[in-house]
Each structure stands twice: as C-alpha cells, then as structure tokens.
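Case study B.
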Amino acid sequence: MRIEIKWKLSILVLILSIASILSVIIVSVSYLNNRSLELIESKESIIGTTVGHLIDEYLDIGFGIDELEGMNKQLQLIASQYKEISSAYITDLNGKIIYHNKADLIGSMTNLEKFDQKAQKIGDGVLLNTVTLNGTTYYETVLPIIFNEEILGRIRIDVPQGIIMESTRRLVMIYIYVIIISFIGIMAITVLLIRKLVEPLSRLKESTDYMARGNYSIRSNISSDDEIGDLSRAFNYMAEEIEKNHRELEQNVQDLKKLITIKTDFLHTVNHQIRTPLTALIGYLSLWRDKRYSKLPLKKQEEINQKITLAADQLSLIIEGMMEAVEVEGGNIRLKIEDIDLTDLAEQTIKGNFEETLKDKKLSLTKDIGKNIGVISDKKYLISIIMNLLDNAIRYTTKGSVGFQLKKTDRSVIIKVEDTGIGLSEEDKKILYDKFSRGSEAMKISPSGNGIGLYITKQMVEELGGTITASSPGRNKGATFIAQIPEIYETHKHITN
Amino acid sequence: MKHINILLIEDELLLRSLFKDTLALPSEYKDVDFRIDTAADFKEALVKLENGPVPDVIILDLRLPSGDPNAKQTPEKEYGFEILKRIVSDKKFTFTPVIVFTNLADRESEQMAYRLGAGEFIVKSRSLPTELFDRIVKVCQECAKLKVNKNASNKTP
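Model:
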C-alpha cells in the first residue's frame, strides 16, 4: 500500500510529539502532586507540632489532658488561618474527640485505628494517614501527645484530598492549553517541512514525466543548496545531455533518410534509364558480331555502326546525368561561399561558351547585365545555373533570339533567360523539372539529351536559397526562365524537397 | 512463302529501329518473310489494334506513355497491362500470341503478365534480338497448329 512521505512524516511527528508531551505531563503532574503533598505534610506537621508544644506547656504546669481551656478556640484559630485545613482536632486514647475546631463534633467517637495502622511514618512518631470519613478523603497528620512517656492522646490535622486535586486540575488545564497550542505549532512546522522537502521531489518527478513523453527541453528550477537541489541539478545536466543526443540522433536520422531516398532514386534510375540504351547497345553489338553482318550492304552496316555509337552516347549521357543528380542531391556540403562579382562572372560565362553555337545557329543574343552586381554565394553553382539556362534556350530555339538579363532587386538577384524557341506546352510544364523527363517536342528538336539539365538547375537554385519559374505563351511561342537567388547566402534557408 | 506479321508496341525509338535492323540481316528462316508494324504509345497501339489487320504475333512493351497530348507522357506499366487485357479479351486476337518484351524484370510483373494471358515473357536486357526472332517463330508455329486444330474441330460434323 502506498503511503506518501508526507503521511509518514506527519505520523512520525505526531507520535513523537504526543509521546513527549504525554511523558512531560505525566512526570510533571506526578511531581507536582508529590510536591503539594509534601507541602501539606510539612504544614500540617508544623501546625501539629505547634499545637503539641502548647499542650506540653499546659501539661507541664499540671493541667490534665481534658482540662485545656481555650484549646477549641486555638484550633478554630488555626483552621481559619490555614484555609486548606478542614479539621484540626485532638482525640483521646479511646478515639473520642476531646477538642475540635468544629464545636459540634466535640465528643463524638471516631474509629480511626484502622487508618492509623495503615499510616505512613514521616517523622518522630508522626504519621500521615489517608482517612475517609463520610465519603470524603483527607490527608491527616497525626501527632501523639506524650507526657511522662505515656501517650495521652493524638493531635490530628486534616486537609481534604480534593484541594490537591484542585491545584492539579488547574495545572492540567494549563497543560491542555499548552498542548493544543504546541500541537498547532507542530502541525504548522510539519506542513512547512513537507513542503520544503517533499514538494520539490514531486515537481522533479513531474519533470521526468515530461521527459519521458518526449519533451527534452524541460528543466527543473529547484536550486536549494541541499541533496534535493543536487538531485535537481543532476537532473538538469542529464536532461541537457539527452536533449543534445536526441537532436544529434534526429539529425542523423534525417541525413540517413535523405541518403536512403537518394539511393533508392538512384537504383530506380539505373533500372529504368540505363536499361534502354544499354539494351540497344547490346542488341546492336550483337548484330555487329553476327556472322551475317558482313553480308549486309555497306550503307546498312554504317547505319548500325552509328546506332551503336548513339546508344553508347545516350548511355554515357544518362550516367553523367545521374552522377550530377546525386552530387546535387547530397546536400550543401560542397558549397563554397564567397564574394562574387556576378556581373563579371555572367559576362565571362557567356563569352566563353555560347558565342560559337549562337553563330552556327544564326541566333542573336541580347544581354542586359546590371553593373557591379555582387553576391555572396557559390561560384560553381552560379556558373552552372547560367550555363544550363542558356544552353536550354539556345538548344530549343531554331530561329530568332535569346535574351539574357541579370538585375538586382532589394535582397536578391534575378537571372532571366528568354527565347523564341519551341516554348512549353501544358504537358511540358508538368514534367519540366522531373529527372530524365523530356517533352515530346524537345526530343524531336534535340534527340540527344538526358532530361537532367533543368532538374539539376532547380536543385542548385534552391540549394542557394532561391526559386526558379518558367513561363511560356505556348507551343513555338518561346519560353522564359527566371531564377531568383538571394544576394547573401544563408545556411538552413534553402528549400529541401 | 510464309508471312509472319508482327505488331511491335514499343516506345523507345532506338529499340524499334534495333528490331527493324535485325530483320535487315539475311533471314535464318527459309521462306519466312517478317513484316513489322509498330506503335509507340498506348493511343497509337489502340488505333492499330482496332483498325489494322490482325497480326500473327504481338510484341508488347509494358512501360508505355499514354500518347494523349494533354496528359503526362511518363511511361507507365499500367498502359502495357491494359493493352494486354484488351488483346486477350478481344475475339479477334484469339490466335494471336502476345510476347511481353520488357525491362521490368520483377516477379510480380511476370506473374501478372502470364495471368493476364501473355504467351511469353522476355526481359529485354537479358535477350538478344536474334533470340527474340527465334521465339517469334516458335510461338507462331505453335499458334498455327492451334489454329489448324481449332479450325479442324470446327469442321467436324
């Protein structure tokens, strides 16, 4: 059965406090009882002795024991002086009361022998009785009157037991008040104690629950300089480590997932993209090796040779494309970010690569390059992007012009390539950036192509944190590609698919 | 002179020409004249099946593009299987065997093809064009026997 610490503590405190209070009460009450008793005893003794001396004087002079005039009055005086004394009287050997402070009791017989026998000796012949008369119990001091070595009578002083009880009772009342107050105090202290000790533990437990549910950023704010505080700090340290580990694991998992996707894609690509040119290549090679090959007309032989080369080229193109794709998919590890003069870069790229082809195809190129456009980005990627876009534009345009524009907007640069070529149909737009996909018109115009160019371009643009859009009024009405790239490359801001 | 009319349904240009060029080699089969008709996508295949003459054998590639100018042109095996279904369910082609000629080398595709009624399942990259023709001839011979038998049984009183 579960008993919480607060109950265990409370019960313990309760038992301890009750035990101590009870023992204090018992000890002090019995002590006080004894004290009162002693006091009464001594008082009674003194009084008894005083009366005894008085009687002795009378007896010395020659009075008889029953001739002491004024003894009653003397006893009355004593009784009035000492309020606790209820009876002060003298009995003779037979037990008859000779003198009494209460006049109406003089002459009556007592039967005190039985009590005398049980009495306690407290001094020279002095006895202390506990006497019960008419239902009331008294403490009685008994002093014998001795003259000439003869006991003539006894002096008896009575104090009702009730009086002692009375004072004891008063004391007990005080004690009860003290108990109640200290009890409240103890309760208060216990509650405080519980709060300070037990509550932090409960809070700490809650924190562990949070963590168990996956919230690794939870921390404990208990900072007391004791073992509980130590536990709390240890917990926080542990939580910190767990969070760090978890983040690392998450990161690793993400990376692995990405790699798995790349691998799977790669394998699918191998399967579909490579098999066709490979099949053609193997097939044509088998024809070439067939014994009947030499019987073919030379023209046909030449055709077959060409197709072998074509198949091999296609295969190589696909493989190249696959390699480019994997490299670009692998993430931004290879980006080299630096200060680049994009104006200069664009000019150089265009000059070095396209002038020949443009001349051959009789296409005109219009350049609109903004001056002194600087960016902080990756040079290789930018070159590739510009080249891919221009390559596409030129490849799919048979007549007219290609326009290249480079300008700056407030936080990015725009690379815009327009052409007057075969344009994009709706069908084309759907598969435009897909790996290895080519539009039907595109395949007619340029049969050798692996369809990877725009896929790579898009990956690169997005890796740099930018976006690419394509538009076209329709088939044979030209196309426009716009790549928008941030002026300053920021890590983690690229779009990952 | 025996004629074997082949309908080749294949989307890759290079493979279609490989097929045709194989025929340029002097035939190993005496007295057999192979004639080839081709279809490059789903739509074209349907047209040829519908309107064209009944071929002696159909060579079917599974991954075909739709041929619909408004739709995506990525080749899907669904089109190939659909053509197969239609051929098998059409009475016209009762005596026309279908040789599935594809690069999908997985078990499921093979089982699916046979279940739908294909006569043969050949993986492109594992076979040579000359082998394919051997198969074509064999399959046609079997089918011819079947045809003859069937016709013969029809005539029995």
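The beta strands of chain B are 2-9, 32-39, 57-60, 98-102, 120-123. The remaining cases will be described in the next quarterly update.
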